[in-house]
Amino acid sequence: MHNSTDDFSPLTLAFVGDGVYDLLVREYLVRQANRPVGELNKTKVAMVNCKSQAQFASKLMPSLTEKEVAIYKRGRNAAPKSTAKNGTLAEYHSATGLECLFGYLYLNGDRDRINELFDMIIQL
Questions:
Q1: What is the pTM assigned to this prediction?
Q2: What is the pLDDT of residue 87?
Q3: Least crowded by CB within 10 Å, which of 14, 26, 45, 118?
């Protein structure tokens, strides 16, 4: 068992971060209004895609610590060289960086910081 998040590959952190981010979006949408599941999913997909995640990542940059920027860049630079379905390759890499950051924070137990960053995203 890994004790340090520094032992995990950036793509492993992004794998966790993708789930964390997806759940935050789902919770946020459900708490906004009681809507049909189809409508919830359509709205979720608009927030959980590489294009919107890349935009959120660029808006968060000024608020990130030096360590968080480094984690983001590890994920961005490690993104697989596959083509993204719903965005450019650059957006896909940036979204992977954001997911890597969320995974890193989650595995380090920093839920307060995750919520702080997600609140900033919601304000956008």
A1: 0.91
A2: 84
A3: 45
